[in-house]
Amino acid sequence: MAKSFGGKFSPSGQRGPTNELREAVIDQRKIDAAGRKAYLLFVPGVLLAFLCLNEGAIALAIGLLGAAILTLAAWLTRDGLRATAEFDARKVARRPALPRKIIGSVLTGIGVALAASINDGSIVAAVLYGLIAAGLHTTAFGLDPLRDKRMEGIDTFQQDRVARVVDEAEAHLASMKDHIADIGDRHLDNRVEQFQAMARKMIRTVEDDPRDLTGARKFLGVYLMGARDAAVKFADLYKRQRNEEARKDFEDLLVDLEQNFAARTEKMLLDDRSDMDIEIKVLRDRLQREGL
Fold first, then answer.
1. Phi/psi class of residue 90: alpha, beta or left (left: φ > 0; alpha: ψ in -120 to 50)?
2. Taking the chain (292 residues) in consecutive chunks of 10 residues, what is each chunk's mean pLDDT?
């Protein structure tokens, strides 16, 4: 779908992206780029499906099964690379529930073994080909994160709470972005990304200090869920009829949410600075009393 042009020099006269938006776009591009590394893995499955079309019935069935397994392996590997990139970008994160890259390696080995068995009747040779392929896949793409990422000095329960809230918030933001992207309007895409950048600034603040979770939980849960629901309803309406009043209401909602998120994040940062100043003052007083 064609997208309308937007930006500083567009007829709508919108300003260019803010620093927060640039940072959010860069982070998203890093995650997307990680997934693109696996795109070539879709090629062997397609080639195998075509090459076995002129073979006998048994070879055709084996070839198509191998092609399906290789395609599934490529899909899992791509998502696994993205999940790993998101894991690396966060300071507090739970390991992926499904080890996609590991499963992708196993499936790649099975798919290659089935493909090899078509032209080589030796089961031993097919198994060896499969093991080599699985090993090369693991070497090229690595393993999934197998442990949760935690911060020192913060108890496990608190970090688990932060990880759950952050996962839920990221899911709301991703759903919101997907529904607005279906409209095909670049300006709306940029506005949603700018709001996402502000929401993620709050997320990073909470990850830096999980004690901020109590004040941010309503924003990262209730408010983001409401923003997602509003985006879903607006996208459905705007795709049916280009209602400019609904568009203005949605953009006004994004502005209000962005301002509230910014104010709350700034307050959390100021509170953190106040706590640090108090700790420094207490430490200095103690050192003076001890004559140091």
1. beta
2. 43 47 56 71 89 84 92 92 81 79 94 88 88 93 81 63 83 88 86 86 78 77 88 87 86 88 80 50 56 54
Kindly list the distances between the CA atom of residue 53 and the CA atoms of 98, 129, 279, in Å, as whole numbers in the listed order. 34, 22, 73
- The Cα–Cα gap between 141 and 130 comes to 16
Q: Is 93 helix (H, G, I), strand (E, B) or coil?
A: strand
Residues 179, 181, 187: CA angle, nearest 5 degrees: 125
Torsion angle of the four alpha carbons 122, 123, 124, 129, in this order, in degrees rounded to the nearest 10: 90
Beta-strand (E) ranges in 10-129? none
Q: What is the DSSP string of 175-223?
A: HHHHHHHTTTBHHHHHHHHHHHHHHHHHHHHHHH-GGGHHHHHHIIIII
Which of 187, 183, 184, 168 shows the shortest CA–CA distance to 228? 168
